[in-house]
Write a structure and sequence with these properties.
Elements: H1 5-10, H2 25-33, H3 47-57, E1 64-66, E2 73-75, E3 93-99, H4 104-116, E4 119-121, E5 124-126, E6 130-134, H5 140-153, E7 158-162, H6 166-176, E8 182-186, H7 191-201, E9 205-208, H8 212-224, E10 230-233, H9 239-255, E11 266-267, H10 276-288, E12 293-296, H11 301-314, E13 327-331, E14 340-344, H12 347-360, E15 364-369, H13 376-381, H14 387-397, E16 407-410, H15 418-424, E17 429-432, H16 440-445
Parallel strand pairs: 3-6, 3-12, 6-7, 7-8, 8-9, 9-10, 11-12, 14-15, 16-17
Antiparallel strand pairs: 1-2, 4-5, 13-15
Length: 450
């Protein structure tokens, strides 16, 4: 059970130095108790206090980091069963599998697509995260050669090293340097050897059981050997078994604090089917319920993009709307004579409005005002999209320096503030745009400066 804020405060120096980024020790203690800050952010607490508070406040599913410190794939750290209860913390990692017995063309294609299939949405880059490299023959030279090639061609990737041979994994860890890999996998037969390797290298270790119960028993044994950073594979290779095992693991760790299952998982849709579309369906299920990493046989845009969007939606905090940055967005190459529209920064509104403007083929300037993620009417009702705030933003944005006219198009639902806005912007003429985004293209095609 975690400490209360007052109990944590008693362990702090109470200097209110602010070096932790919080103004007072009390406020910092409350943030630590709420899981919003790490006790290690205080530079003056002892290692004993860090360990004591850290263990007590740790989430029921351990947080695991793979890769370089500045670009790590973080999995686990989950605290709830359902997204509406709080939020899901760390998005499922998406990996692509390459093997030492694959042909050069297949390997090159997978690595190329790992680099190229990247998408920008809501200011975020959506992409696959990691590359699983499987040693199929125990050939250390071939394994390291494939790893080094992947490192050269995909410099921002993290790695999962897969081999039955501990010497291959040990060589792989040395080749990775500061890019910490996930080692796969420990089984009943090799658990002592793999545990020793994981301890010596400081790398997280994935274990594979034959069943959920077997995985839990093996996890307990590895914990007894001093390992803390584990990833679970129950051995399930059908969608039904994988789904049931992931739900059972999540319930056991969240509801019952069952420590042997308190770790993120890794799952292999690539081994469940040879049909790419069925693999995508399996992956979509495991993204939602509750895989830490999914390993795909290949990366194709028509499969990867929907999975990335699903992941983005599932792992967005439901209590915080998705937003885009307040800014001026040029669409279709606008110039000084192009119309200027304004709307809120709720991401759905932005994508709908910008999409309709783009579809109109009319070069336009789109001003996005920060409304804390609220939609147009909600933001207006909450006083976050009022005439004075819009006027302040228009002036601050310096859009006037980019255009020769002084015409501002506001959403149709804000028609009632037209007069007030013109008083706030006396040099501007305010025009009321359509109420529905679908009516924007004909409106822009007929637009003339007022």
């Amino acid at each position: 059970m975690g400490f209360t804020g007052i109990e944590i405060l008693k362990m702090l120096p109470k200097t209110n130095c602010g070096e932790c980024g919080v103004s007072t020790c009390l406020a910092f203690a409350m943030k630590v108790a709420a899981g919003q800050a790490e006790i290690g952010a205080c530079p003056y607490v002892s290692d004993e206090v860090k360990e004591k508070v850290g263990e007590a406040s740790a989430p029921p599913i351990r947080t695991i980091k793979i890769g370089r410190e500045d670009n790590a794939l973080v999995i686990g750290g989950e605290t709830c069963l359902y997204r509406h209860e709080k939020r899901f913390e760390h998005p499922t990692g998406i990996a692509v599998l390459i093997k030492t017995d694959m042909g050069d063309e297949d390997i090159a294609g997978r690595l190329k697509r790992f680099n190229e299939l990247r998408y920008n949405r809501v200011g975020l880059e959506l992409k696959a995260d990691t590359i699983a490299i499987e040693d199929t023959g125990g050939d250390e030279g071939a394994f390291i050669s494939l790893l080094e090639r992947a490192q050269r061609e995909c410099p921002d990737a993290s790695f999962i090293l897969m081999s039955r041979e501990s010497h291959c994994l040990a060589a792989g860890v040395r080749a990775c340097g500061d890019n910490i890999p996930l080692l796969y996998s420990a089984t009943r037969e090799n658990s002592e050897t793999m545990a020793r390797l994981a301890r010596d290298t400081g790398c997280p270790l994935a274990l594979r059981g034959d069943t959920l119960g077997d995985a839990a028993e093996l996890s307990g044994q590895l914990q007894g050997m001093g390992l803390k950073d584990l990833v679970l594979d129950t051995g399930a290779r059908t969608i039904r078994a994988a789904f049931e095992d992931h739900v059972a693991i999540r319930r056991a760790s969240i509801r019952h604090k069952y420590k042997p299952l308190g770790y993120p998982t890794i799952s292999f849709p690539c081994e469940m089917t040879k049909d790419p579309m069925l693999e995508a369906m399996v992956s979509s299920v495991l993204l939602a319920k509750y895989a830490g990493i999914i390993v795909l046989s290949d990366l194709q845009g028509d499969v990867l993009f929907p999975l990335l969007l699903e992941r983005l939606n599932i792992f967005t905090d439901p209590q915080r709307p998705m937003v885009v940055e307040e800014d001026i967005y040029p669409i279709n190459g606008p110039d000084e004579n192009s119309p200027v529209l304004i709307t809120c920064n709720f991401s759905l509104t932005y994508f709908i409005v910008s999409g309709e403007i783009e579809g109109s083929k009319v070069p336009s300037w789109l001003l996005i005002k920060d409304t804390e993620g609220l939609s147009v009417l909600t933001a207006w009702a909450a006083g976050k999209f009022s005439a004075d705030l819009i006027a302040m933003f228009v002036k601050k944005s310096n859009i006037a320096d980019r255009i020769s006219h002084r015409n501002l198009i506001i959403p149709g639902y804000l028609a009632s503030i037209k007069g007030e806005l013109e008083e706030e912007l006396p040099d501007w003429k305010v025009q009321v745009g359509p109420r529905e985004a679908s009516h924007i293209p004909p409106f822009l095609r007929e637009w003339q400066p007022g």
